[in-house]
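If I may wish for something, please sit down with the protein I am sending here and say whether tokens and residues agree:
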Amino acid sequence: MKKILIPTDFSDHAEYALKVAAQIARKNNGEIVLLHMLELPHEGSDALGSGSDIPEIMFFKNAAIKRLEDLMDEDYLEGIKVSEIVQFELAFDGILNISKKNNVDLIVMGSHGASGFKEMFIGSNAEKVVRNSDIPVLIIKKEDDDFKVNDFVFASDFSDEIKKPFEKVVEFATKFDANLHLVMINTPNNFRSTSRSEEIMKNFMSSYSVPKVKMHIYNESNVEKGILNFAKSIHADLIGVCTHGRKGLSHFFNGSISEDLVNHAKRPVVTFKI
């Protein structure tokens, strides 16, 4: 988590994400990249519109740079290396492209939670980022001046395809010195006995050495409700899940479980791409 990307539309929730990112960067001697996307109307094949649009384009760009520079002067960013980017591109494409070009380790985004994504993230932009980003995406729901992860819930079916992203899960938990709670959700449509569930989880964890880990089995009517209720029951600080897009996770997640959690969870959610 040495380089953290923060897409901002200058809304309150985007700033909540920036404040959390600042705390993470400070603890890890990291840096922050602030990104604002300008989605301007275009004509024909010219991505920036006709020549007559240039003065308007420059006005919006200069205004965005000024707002980014004002953000960079905030006290909570003092002592942290911060750079800004204004990009003429669709938000979803721009966030993913900039994260790759800048070798970003983590994307932090703000969300209104159950009411859905607003402002810059209205529609499917943030959900597309969660679904397609190759690097972890942390979704922040509210202002938190003392962001800590004492108890980190990671929900999975613990199949072999989870092993590679699980290395990032362990790294994430270690960075925060968190108690890692592994949970398998049993549902009526995909039910396993306790002994079988324990066997799957123990076999999965046999390849890893994680000092602060606990394994749990939780029964619920569906996966999303199970994750949310389990996280609530242990007062978790963070929920983690894996995703590989609309294909879903074999034997466990449907195609939208990560996006549903991002929209409905009251707690922060971090996603890891398979």
